[in-house]
Design a protein that fits this description.
The chain is of the alpha+beta class. 25% of the residues lie in helices and 9% in strands.
């Protein structure tokens, strides 16, 4: 049997150490709860990817 060290990552939500193995269903998150918290942050735009705003045909027709 090989003596390999199992890699771990920090859960993006709570920073708990998570083993990077197939039995960790929610990796890189430690749990479904942390996964859903992160998803909610994206949905409410608490997380954003930096860049210029992209205008679509719908937004170009409005006077702000």
């Amino acid at each position: 049997m090989e003596n390999r060290k199992i890699p771990t990552v920090a859960c993006p939500t709570c920073k708990t150490a998570v083993s990077w193995t197939a039995d960790q269903l929610f990796r890189p998150f430690c749990s479904e709860r942390c996964k859903l918290i992160d998803l909610g942050d994206w949905a409410t735009e608490a997380h954003k990817i930096a860049g210029e705003e992209v205008l679509t045909d719908e937004t170009e027709n409005f006077d702000y």
